[in-house]
């Protein structure tokens, strides 16, 4: 992924203008144009930009304004998200690939969010294999039959080298039926190990309310992931001095952001 300027991220995440009007964030994101695609704008486009490490013009830190509960992964309590009323959350684990993650779903099954900070995959020769599996997961979670067709709106698949590591970002914004969703995967290959370590995120909602859910649900989820709840700065899960939003692998202290 492209390197992110610390000052820009700090302005976004710390929220120095937290006393702004409630609708200020909405107003600021309405005209944002998506990068790496054409003819896509608004809060959903800003959310896509954020996944690509691009500045968001926010006046305040997005928060859940109608908390309904909190889900934590029992084996890693720090992996925890507060969700809105009318939602439910579960910790997820696959005994084959040993991911650690969280699924959050609205009770009508029409809004879905998944966060997996790390999963180890064996025998992957193409990064598109990983994202294709997660796109199918998104379809299944909202009950959509992919045989009915879908339209990619934004797409990016880019690799960079971090010293001896290969880091790949692979993302899509997709419209399918009455839904819109974003799926992105950030993968790291360590030479000699034969595995791909990936972080995965999915967000999906009906297209008619996708921008609204971006503002009141998906963005607050992401800021919970990156900002310490005590206001003490950025989260650094592996304690290597490289914050989660910049670290190529925030579960491995031997892998850190290169300034």
Task: Provide structural commentary.
The protein has 259 residues and is α+β, with helices and mostly antiparallel strands. The protein has a single domain, classed as Protein Transport Mog1p, Chain A (3-Layer(aba) Sandwich). It contains 5 helices and 9 strands. The protein has a 7-stranded antiparallel beta sheet, sandwiched between helices. Strands 1-2 form a two-stranded antiparallel ribbon. It is globular, with a radius of gyration of 17 Å. 37% of the residues are buried. The N terminus is likely disordered.
Q: How many DSSP helices?
A: 5
Q: What percentage of the residues does DSSP assign to strands (E)?
A: 25-35%
- What is the CATH C level class, in words? Alpha Beta
How do the strands of the widest beta sheet line up side by side?
3-4-5-9-8-7-6
The low-confidence runs, each spanning 5 or more residues with pLDDT under 50, are 1-22
The CATH topology label is Protein Transport Mog1p, Chain A
- What's the number of structural domains? 1
Biggest pleated-sheet summary: 7 strands, antiparallel
Structural class: alpha+beta
- The helix-strand sequence is HHHEEEEEHEEEEH
Percentage of residues in helical conformation: 10-25%
The residue-averaged pLDDT reads 79
Task: Please name the CATH architecture.
Answer: 3-Layer(aba) Sandwich
Region (Disordered): 234-259
């Amino acid at each position: 992924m492209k390197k992110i300027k610390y000052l820009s991220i700090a302005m976004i995440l710390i929220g120095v203008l937290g006393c702004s009007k409630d609708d200020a964030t909405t107003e600021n994101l309405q005209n944002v144009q998506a990068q790496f695609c054409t003819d896509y704008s608004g809060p959903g486009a800003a959310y896509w930009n954020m996944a690509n490490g691009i500045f968001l013009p926010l006046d305040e830190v997005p928060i859940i304004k109608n908390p309904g509960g909190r889900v934590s992964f029992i084996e890693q309590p720090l992996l925890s998200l507060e969700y809105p009323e009318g939602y439910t959350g579960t910790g997820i684990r696959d005994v084959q690939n040993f991911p650690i993650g969280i699924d959050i779903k609205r009770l009508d099954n029409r809004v879905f969010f998944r966060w997996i900070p790390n999963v180890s995959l064996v025998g992957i020769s193409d990064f598109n294999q990983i994202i294709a599996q997660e796109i199918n997961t998104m379809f299944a979670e909202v009950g959509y039959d992919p045989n009915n067709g879908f339209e990619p709106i934004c797409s990016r698949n880019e690799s960079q080298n971090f010293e001896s590591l290969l880091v790949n970002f692979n993302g899509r914004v997709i419209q399918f039926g009455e839904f819109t969703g974003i799926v992105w995967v950030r993968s790291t290959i360590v030479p000699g190990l034969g595995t791909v370590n990936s972080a995965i995120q999915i967000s999906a909602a009906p297209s008619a309310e996708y921008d609204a859910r971006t503002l009141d649900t998906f963005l607050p989820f992401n800021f919970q992931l990156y900002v310490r709840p005590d206001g003490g700065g950025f989260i650094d899960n592996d304690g290597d001095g490289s914050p989660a939003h910049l670290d190529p692998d925030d579960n491995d202290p031997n892998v850190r952001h290169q300034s």
